[in-house]
Amino acid sequence: MARPYRLGSLRGQFLRWLLIPLVLLVALNAFSVYRNALDAADLAYDRSLLASARALAERVQIVDGKVVANVPYVALDSFETDTLGRLYYKVTGVNGEFVSGYEDLPDLPKNVPRSEIYPALVHFFHADYQDQAVRIAALHQPVYDDQMRGIALIEVGETMDARRGLSRKILIDTLLRQAALVLAVALMVWVALRFVLSPIMQLRADVEAREPTDLSDFDPNVVHKEIRPLVNAMNAYMARLQTLINGQKRFIADASHQLRTPLTVLKTQAELALRENDAAAMRQIVASIAQTTDATVHLANRLLTLARTGHGAAAAELEYILLNQLAQEVCLELAMPAVRKQIDLALEADEAISYRGNTLLLHEMLSNLLDNAIRYTPEGGRIILRVYFQEGQAVIDIQDTGPGIPEAEREKVFEPFYRASASSVMNPGGTGLGLCIVHDIVKLHGGDISLADASLQEDAQTDSIGLSVLPGLRVKIRFPIQD
């Protein structure tokens, strides 16, 4: 069985969910800012490079039909001082001949487009020169005199050291600012979380400080609106737990009270048997002990069944069963007691009804109902057990011609150890647990149970003026059919 995943700190998860996307967004923003800064730096350096090319172009002229360039070293030194990088230049004549500068400086590639930013015939491109990366501005400069005219090419290359230094500075400054921003946000979120989560931490402290016997409600208004459903659920659970505990206390008190009497009788009978010397009297006492023991065992079994249904232990033991077959089995098991009392026991369950429930408890339920009906129906009476389907529900309907239960007592008979007045007269040895067990089993299965007068009056006994003396009892149980 796989171990369930254990959730970590709420504060830590919140920080991770907030800071990880924030770091990604900051990284994207830093990259965007860095790229924009590089573009701005390139624009500024390219403008300076173009200015150098223009300054050189002003020194290019035609002398005696040849293109010449008068470029003193002082001018180049001033350009290098302004750009903070090493400069290289080359002047090419109108016919492609080398005029001045560094002859091996790379030529302008054919596929480099003209820059649209400046009002000049200038092309910018990257190249490698003397094992260094350089940025070159190639400017087409018109030259002419009285004898010829054409366009000379002035190329000025600058090493990338200054640009790369500026790029690193921009990147480091950007990352430092963004990191400071992330740290500030993390600190503010941490402080905010401590403040926001303080009601929950206080609730945890209140739960830990509670006594085990204190099941009173927690105040949902001391926490945030989103947490109130959880607090309300806790309160509802504690209310159910309190109900269960109260039921257990009542059950234990009632069970101890009910068991005390037969155990006391057993002890008394045993003491009498010890003092008795007559064999016949001894045999009679032992028979009484056996009878009392049977009643005590019956009571204990009823109490165990009641305890089991009260704890809902059968909720995980559900299976599909046929109610008509279950009713037939119970009728066969209790046929002999009915025959001894000459009771007409009829079963009407022709339709096969499948229901998902606990077989043992449903068998106990039917056995209790049919056993009660046989116990309280006079000799020569009639009992009908019907199982049928009606309006999406499985219905179990039991009618007898016994004394019935007065309407005022029909709700009370579902309480433990309560016995109706007629039942106490006809069966003094009863436990008062049968209908209570039936009620709990029905509720455990999500069903409904109702008591009413039976409709078998034509077979009931009547008095001298024709009124029914035994109204009979009708027990009707409805179970919803699950899909």
Automatic annotation (TrEMBL):
Pfam families tied to this protein: 2CSK_N (PF08521), HATPase_c (PF02518), HisKA (PF00512)
- Which EC number applies? 2.7.13.3
What reaction gets catalysed by this protein?
ATP + protein L-histidine = ADP + protein N-phospho-L-histidine
Q: Which molecular-function annotations from GO does this UniProt entry contain?
A: phosphorelay sensor kinase activity
Keyword line = Kinase, Membrane, Phosphoprotein, Transferase, Transmembrane, Transmembrane helix, Two-component regulatory system
Signal peptide as annotated in the record: none
**What is its subcellular localisation?**
Membrane
Tell me the InterPro entries matching this sequence: 2CSK_N, HAMP_dom, HATPase_C_sf, HATPase_dom, His_kinase_dom, HisK_dim/P_dom, HisK_dim/P_sf, Sig_transdc_His_kin-like_C
SUPFAM superfamilies named among the record's database cross-references: ATPase domain of HSP90 chaperone/DNA topoisomerase II/histidine kinase, Homodimeric domain of signal transducing histidine kinase
- Is Transmembrane one of the keywords? yes
Query: What domain of life is recorded for the organism?
Result: Bacteria
Membrane spanning segments where?
Answer: 175-197
Query: Ranges for the HAMP domain?
Result: 194-246
Histidine kinase domain mapped to chain residues: 254-483
GO CC terms: plasma membrane
Top EC group? transferase
Tell me the PANTHER family matching this sequence: SENSOR HISTIDINE KINASE YKOH, SENSOR PROTEIN QSEC
Please identify the protein, giving its name as recorded.
histidine kinase
Species of origin reads Undibacterium pigrum
